[in-house]
Inverse folding.
C-alpha cells in the first residue's frame, strides 16, 4: 500500500460517510472533499431545501473538527463573527473569540449580511487569522469556510463582492434532484432510523493529506494548459473566445489558476495517479472559474451563465498549444 | 526502476524514429514515382539508379530532424491514454520527491502492460495521403494530354523534329565546307529551308537523296565525308518514315472506308511486279523468307500509294525510295518492278532479304489490330480472303510462312506476323547477299 492508496481510502471514506446522509450530488460531495483536501473554502449555491446546510453539517460530522454555524442576517455585525474585546471581572479587556474560531464554519445564507459583515471573513479566509484591536489571532488549522447562498429571493440581499468571491476555492451549484433521488430522500428521511455520518478524519490527518497533495508533480504542458484556461477568461487575452470577449468584464485572478492546479492534484490522487493530467484540470475548471468570471452589462442583461462561457473555453482552448510533430 | 524506464523510453524513441524513416521513405518514393510516370510517357530513359535516392534522403532527414523526447512522451501519453504519466515522469525523473518514485513505478507498470507495437501504431502521416494524390493527378493529366495529342495531326507534333533535323544538316554542312564546298552550300540551303519550314518533305527527301548519292559517287571520300553522309542518310530515313506516316494517316481512312479500288489495283500490280522482278528463282536459302518483298510490304502498308512508288507509276518516279538506296537504283528497280530493299546492319520490321512468291494482295489478311489512327492492320505476306494461303515461297528457313499452316494449335495470324517481322539477317550472310545483289545489278 502506497501513499496514494491511503489518500484514496481516506477520501472515499469521507465521501461514503457524507453520502449516507446526502442523497445524490455525488459530484458535489466529491468536489467538497476535494476542496477540503486542498485547503480551500466552498460556496454552495442552490434553491432552498436542497440540502446545502445539511451537506456541510454532515461533512462536519464526518470530520473530527470544531464546528460553528453563522446565520448571516442583515443586522449581523463583523464583531459577531470574529469576536470582540470585552472587559472582564479584572477590569481588563479580554478577547472574546467569535464563531469564526472553529475549524469548520458554516456561513449560512452569506449574501444576506451586509458587505461590511461579509468583509469580516476576508482576512480569516485568506490568511487564516483574525485581527481585533490591533491584535492578530491565528485560527486553528485546518480552517474551512463553507458558505451557502440562495440564487433567488434576492431582495434584501447583498451579492458577494468580487474580492470575497475570489477567496472561495470552489463554487458549487446544487441542482434540483431527479425522481430517483427524491424517492431516496423520502426513504432516508422519513424512516425511524435516520442515517448519521461517523467521524473518520481528524484535523491532523487532513493537514497531512494537504501536504501530500502539494507534492503531486504537474508537467509543464499541463501547467501551461491551466494557465491558458485562466487567461482565456479574460476578454483581452489572445486565448479568449468570442463569447468571453462579448460578455465578460473581468476574468479569473491568479487565485483561479492556483485553485485549478490544487484541485486537479487532489483529483489525480483520487483517480489513483501521481501526476496531474489534462482531464483533471478540465474536471475542476467549472467549479473553480465560474464565480471568478465577472460578466459585463450585456452579459448580465442577457442572463448569461458563466458555465456556458467556461464550456466555450474548454472547447476552444486545446490541451497542447503546440501539438507534437508526429514523425 | 529509473534505468528500466530509460531503457523503455529508449526503445520507444527508436521505434518512432524508424517509423519516421519509413514515412519519409514512402513520401520520397511517392514523389519519385512522378519522375518515372513522366519517363514512361515521354521516353526520357531515366535509369533505375534514382531509386536509391529516396532511402538516402529519408535516412538523412530522419537523422537531421529527430523527434524530441518531450514530443515522444506526449505522443505516447496521447496514443496510449496514459494521462500525461510519461511526460510527467520524463520531467520529474531526477526529482528526489518520494511521490516521484511512486510515479515512475506507476508509469513503468503501465508501460509494461503494453506491447511496444501498440505504442504509436504504424500510422501514416496524413501528408502521405496528399502526396499520394499528386502522382495520380500527374498520371491522369498525362493520359489526357496523350489522348489530346493523338487526336491532333501527328505532323504538327513532329514539325519541331524536322526543324531540328534542319539544324543538324546545317551543322553537317559546316563539316563539308572545305572538302566539298558545293555540297556544303546546298546542304546549308536545304537545312535552312527545313528550319524555316519552307520546303516540303518530298523535296527534302529528293534533295537529300541526290546529295547522298553524290557523296557516295566520289571514290576518294574522306572518313569525314563518309560519316557526314551516313548522318544524312539517317535524316533521310527519318523524313521518309515520317512522310509515310503522314500519308498513311491522311489517306488510309479513306481507303479503308471506300476500299479504293484503283489504288489497290495499281498497288497490287506494282507489288506483283516488284515481287517478280526482285525475287529470282534461284535466290538461295534465304530467299524463301520473302524479306525483300517484306520491306516493300511494309512500305506499302504504311503508304497506301506504295504501289505507285514501286515502279508502276512513272510520274511518281522522282520520289526518293522509301528504303534508301541510290536514286538511279531505285528508279531502275521501280522500272523493273523490283523492291527497294536496302542492305542494313540491323533488320527492320518486315525483313530485308529478297523474297519470292506471288500474292494476291500485298497488304495481306486484315487483322483485328488497329493503329493509333484506327486503321486496320494487315499481315504482310498473307493473302486476303479465306481459304488456303496462296503463297509460293521457296527455300528453307527456321520458320517460314509455308510451314505455319502445318503448325498445330498455333494461331496463324500471329505466327505469320512475328517471324516475318523479326527475322534477323545472319551477319555471315550479309556479304553474300550484298554480292548477290551487286551481281544481279551488274548483269542487268
Amino acid at each position: 500500500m502506497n501513499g496514494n492508496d491511503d489518500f484514496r481510502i481516506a477520501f472515499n471514506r469521507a465521501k461514503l460517510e457524507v453520502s449516507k446522509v446526502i442523497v445524490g450530488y455525488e459530484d458535489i460531495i466529491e468536489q467538497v472533499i476535494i476542496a477540503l483536501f486542498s485547503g480551500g473554502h466552498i460556496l454552495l449555491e442552490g434553491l432552498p431545501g436542497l440540502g446545502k446546510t445539511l451537506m456541510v453539517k454532515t461533512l462536519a460530522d464526518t470530520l473530527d473538527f470544531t464546528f460553528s454555524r453563522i446565520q448571516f442576517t442583515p443586522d449581523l455585525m463583523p464583531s459577531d463573527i470574529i469576536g470582540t474585546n470585552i472587559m472582564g471581572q479584572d477590569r481588563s479587556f479580554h478577547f472574546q473569540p467569535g464563531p469564526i474560531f472553529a475549524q469548520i464554519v458554516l456561513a449560512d445564507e452569506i449574501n444576506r449580511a451586509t458587505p461590511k459583515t461579509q468583509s469580516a471573513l476576508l482576512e480569516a479566509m485568506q490568511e487564516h487569522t483574525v485581527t481585533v484591536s490591533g491584535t492578530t489571532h491565528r485560527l486553528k488549522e485546518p480552517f474551512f469556510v463553507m458558505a451557502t447562498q440562495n440564487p433567488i429571493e434576492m431582495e434584501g440581499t447583498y451579492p458577494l463582492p468580487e474580492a470575497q468571491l475570489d477567496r472561495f476555492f470552489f463554487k458549487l451549484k446544487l441542482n434540483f434532484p431527479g425522481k430517483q433521488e427524491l424517492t431516496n430522500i423520502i426513504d432516508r428521511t422519513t424512516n425511524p432510523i435516520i442515517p448519521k455520518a461517523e467521524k473518520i478524519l481528524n484535523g491532523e490527518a487532513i493537514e497531512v493529506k494537504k501536504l501530500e497533495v502539494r507534492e503531486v508533480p504537474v508537467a509543464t504542458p499541463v501547467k501551461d494548459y491551466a494557465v491558458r484556461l485562466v487567461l482565456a477568461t479574460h476578454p483581452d487575452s489572445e486565448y479568449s473566445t468570442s463569447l468571453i470577449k462579448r460578455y465578460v468584464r473581468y476574468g479569473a485572478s491568479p487565485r483561479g489558476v492556483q485553485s485549478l492546479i490544487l484541485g486537479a492534484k487532489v483529483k489525480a490522487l483520487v483517480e489513483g495517479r501521481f501526476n496531474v493530467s489534462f482531464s483533471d484540470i478540465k474536471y475542476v475548471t467549472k467549479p473553480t472559474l465560474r464565480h471568478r468570471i465577472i460578466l459585463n452589462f450585456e452579459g448580465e442583461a442577457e442572463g448569461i451563465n458563466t458555465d456556458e462561457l467556461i464550456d466555450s473555453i474548454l472547447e476552444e482552448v486545446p490541451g497542447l498549444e503546440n501539438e507534437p510533430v508526429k514523425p | 526502476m529509473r534505468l528500466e524506464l530509460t531503457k523503455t523510453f529508449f526503445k520507444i524513441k527508436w521505434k518512432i524514429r524508424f517509423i519516421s524513416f519509413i514515412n519519409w521513405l514512402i513520401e520520397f518514393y511517392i514523389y519519385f514515382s512522378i519522375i518515372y510516370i513522366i519517363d514512361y510517357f515521354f521516353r526520357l530513359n531515366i535509369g533505375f539508379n534514382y531509386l536509391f535516392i529516396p532511402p538516402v534522403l529519408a535516412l538523412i532527414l530522419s537523422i537531421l530532424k529527430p523527434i524530441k523526447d518531450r514530443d515522444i512522451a506526449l505522443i505516447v501519453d496521447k496514443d496510449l491514454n496514459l494521462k500525461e504519466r510519461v511526460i510527467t515522469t520524463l520531467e520529474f525523473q531526477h526529482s528526489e520527491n518520494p511521490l516521484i518514485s511512486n510515479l515512475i513505478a506507476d508509469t513503468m507498470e503501465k508501460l509494461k502492460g503494453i506491447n511496444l507495437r501498440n505504442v504509436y501504431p504504424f500510422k501514416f502521416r496524413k501528408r502521405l495521403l496528399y502526396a499520394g494524390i499528386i502522382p495520380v493527378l500527374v498520371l491522369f493529366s498525362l493520359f489526357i494530354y496523350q489522348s489530346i495529342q493523338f487526336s491532333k495531326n501527328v505532323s504538327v507534333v513532329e514539325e519541331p523534329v524536322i526543324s531540328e533535323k534542319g539544324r543538324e544538316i546545317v551543322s553537317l554542312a559546316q563539316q563539308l565546307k572545305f572538302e566539298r564546298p558545293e555540297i556544303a552550300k546546298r546542304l546549308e540551303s536545304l537545312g535552312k529551308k527545313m528550319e524555316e519550314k519552307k520546303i516540303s518533305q518530298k523535296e527534302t527527301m529528293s534533295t537529300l537523296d541526290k546529295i547522298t548519292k553524290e557523296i557516295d559517287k566520289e571514290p576518294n571520300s574522306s572518313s569525314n565525308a563518309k560519316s557526314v553522309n551516313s548522318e544524312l542518310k539517317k535524316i533521310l530515313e527519318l523524313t521518309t518514315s515520317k512522310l509515310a506516316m503522314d500519308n498513311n494517316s491522311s489517306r488510309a481512312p479513306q481507303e479503308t472506308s471506300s476500299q479504293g479500288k484503283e489504288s489497290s489495283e495499281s498497288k497490287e500490280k506494282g507489288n506483283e511486279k516488284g515481287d517478280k522482278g526482285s525475287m529470282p528463282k534461284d535466290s538461295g536459302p534465304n530467299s524463301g523468307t520473302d524479306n525483300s518483298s517484306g520491306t516493300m510490304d511494309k512500305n506499302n502498308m504504311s503508304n497506301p500509294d506504295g504501289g505507285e512508288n514501286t515502279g508502276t507509276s512513272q510520274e511518281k518516279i522522282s520520289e526518293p525510295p522509301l528504303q534508301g538506296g541510290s536514286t538511279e537504283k531505285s528508279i531502275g528497280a521501280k522500272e523493273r518492278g523490283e523492291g527497294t530493299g536496302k542492305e542494313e546492319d540491323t533488320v527492320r520490321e518486315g525483313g530485308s532479304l529478297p523474297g519470292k512468291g506471288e500474292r494476291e494482295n500485298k497488304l495481306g489478311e486484315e487483322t483485328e489490330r488497329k493503329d493509333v489512327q484506327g486503321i486496320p492492320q494487315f499481315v504482310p505476306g498473307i493473302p486476303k480472303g479465306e481459304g488456303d494461303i496462296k503463297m509460293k515461297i521457296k527455300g528453307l528457313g527456321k520458320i517460314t510462312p509455308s510451314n505455319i499452316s502445318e503448325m498445330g494449335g498455333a494461331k496463324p495470324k500471329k505466327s505469320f506476323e512475328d517471324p516475318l517481322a523479326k527475322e534477323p539477317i545472319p551477319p555471315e550472310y550479309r556479304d553474300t547477299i550484298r554480292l548477290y545483289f551487286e551481281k544481279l545489278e551488274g548483269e542487268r
The CA atoms of residues 46 and 174 of chain A lie 5 Å apart. The first helix of chain A runs from residue 3 to 21. The mean pLDDT of chain A is 87.
